[in-house]
Write a structure and sequence with these properties.
Elements (H helix, E strand, L loop, with lengths): L8 E7 L8 E7 L6 E10 L2 H8 L14 E9 L11 E4 L9 H4 L26 E3 L2 E3 L11 E5 L3 E3 L6 H4 L5 H13 L6 E5 L3 H12 L4 E5 L6 H4 L6 E3 L8 H8 L6 E4 L4 H9 L7 E4 L14 H4 L3 E4 L7 H13 L9 E6 L3 H9 L5 E5 L3
Parallel strand pairs: 10-11, 10-13, 11-12, 13-14, 14-15, 16-17
Antiparallel strand pairs: 1-2, 2-6, 3-4, 3-8, 3-17, 4-5, 5-9, 6-7
Helix pairs in contact: 4-5
GO molecular function, one term: zinc ion binding
Family: Belongs to the zinc-containing alcohol dehydrogenase family.
Main location: cytoplasm
């Protein structure tokens, strides 16, 4: 790989030329990394709902042409000036948010919301110089959340790369770089259910099932899955769900149903849909005195959370979380080790696999609601 250091690399990338239109495999030029940047050869990437949401561009600023992708695994090809903790050949997971290790958030044991590298979905350029590292015939192709992994090579800020065990299979652990860690961490790092406790999970997509997996690993005695799609319930049993509720099956609010089932409410709840009604239900279904509700899903920009203050005064706790409260560089390597030690299963999240040339199939699967994660193999 060292032979390409400092040079422009020509490679294939899946370019989104406009909102909602199929990606096109193009030859792009990838510039060398600048100060505090790393050029990475992507081996495996997967599709997350966030990619689809911004590709559709229905509710936010459209930035095109763009290379999407942020769940991935790869190998460092070369490093820019000032990069000391990564070297060519290192195995890495790119992350949509970062850890500069210098700001107040990074120095705090309680936060992972880095001032410098926190997720920015509108920015399509590198923070170093405000320019892109991708181009086609001299015209810029924009980045996505600082990662752009739907390319054989990409350039990423060093603070958004977790160096991991080189023995970890990248075609499996790549899914830990976003959704699975977000859900799992929301439960184990934030909700912190005690052994034998009851937990409700709202939304049984990949993130919600990862939250359920966190409850299972924590030793919860009852894990109640809540989803409007009844077809998800059978799959959820593999992730520890013991009971299922479809709010549409009841005339009363689902939080009342849960309170009746659990003698006053669950000990912990984790909300993974972003639907404001589900968020309120997730809070109101926890037991007074000790119940903790954790919000993971991202709501509509105009949504308002409304509940009676007595629900808080009666000693219920409402928390929010971002990327499962994991610091990308400091904490993600240990999540990979949980997989290596068989404490965390990731294979059951991977339901499809396609070669890079068929990346649009991954979008089709997700738009149809089929499966959880589709691995995209870059070298096929």
């Amino acid at each position: 790989m060292a032979g390409t250091a400092g040079q422009v690399i020509k490679c294939k990338a899946a370019v989104a030329w406009e909102a909602g239109k199929p990606l096109v495999i193009e030859e792009v030029e990838v510039a060398p990394p600048q100060a505090m940047e790393v050029r990475v050869k992507i081996l495996y990437t997967s599709l997350c709902h966030t990619d689809v949401y911004f590709w559709e561009a229905k509710g936010q600023t459209p930035v095109f042409p763009r290379i999407f992708g942020h769940e991935a695994g790869g190998i460092v090809e070369s490093v820019g000036e000032g990069v000391t903790d990564l070297a060519p050949g290192d195995h890495v997971l790119p992350v949509f948010t970062g850890e500069c290790k210098e700001c107040a958030h990074c120095k705090s044991a309680e936060s992972n919301m880095c001032d410098l590298l926190r997720i920015n979905t509108d920015r399509g350029v590198m923070i170093n110089d405000g320019k892109t590292r991708f181009s086609i015939n001299g015209k810029p192709i924009y980045h996505f959340v600082g990662t752009s992994t739907f390319s054989e090579y990409t350039v990423i800020h060093v603070g958004c790369l977790a160096k991991i065990n080189p023995r970890a299979p990248l075609d499996k652990v790549c899914v830990l770089s976003c959704g699975i860690s977000t859900g799992f961490g929301a439960t184990v790092n934030v909700a912190k259910p005690l052994k034998g406790s009851t937990v409700a999970i709202f939304g049984l997509g990949a993130v919600g099932l990862a939250a359920a997996e966190g409850a299972r690993v924590s030793g919860a005695s009852r894990i109640i899955g809540v989803d409007l799609n009844a077809s998800r319930f059978e799959e959820a049993k593999k992730f520890g769900c013991t009971e299922f509720l479809n709010p549409m099956d009841y005339k009363k609010p689902v939080q009342e149903v849960i309170a009746e089932m659990t003698n006053g409410g669950v000990d912990r709840s984790v909300e993974c849909t972003g639907n404001i009604k589900a968020m309120i239900s997730a809070f109101e279904c926890v037991h007074d005195g000790w119940g903790v509700a954790v919000l993971v899903g991202v709501p509509h920009k105009d949504a308002e959370f409304k509940t009676h203050p007595m629900n808080l005064l009666n000693e219920r706790t409402l928390k929010g979380t971002f990327f499962g409260n994991y610091k990308p560089r400091s904490d993600l390597p240990s999540v990979v080790e949980k997989y290596m030690n068989k404490e965390l299963e990731v294979e059951k999240f991977i339901t499809h696999s396609v070669p890079f040339s068929e990346i649009n199939k991954a979008f089709e699967y997700m738009l149809k609601g089929e499966g959880l994660r589709c691995i995209i193999r870059m070298e096929d």
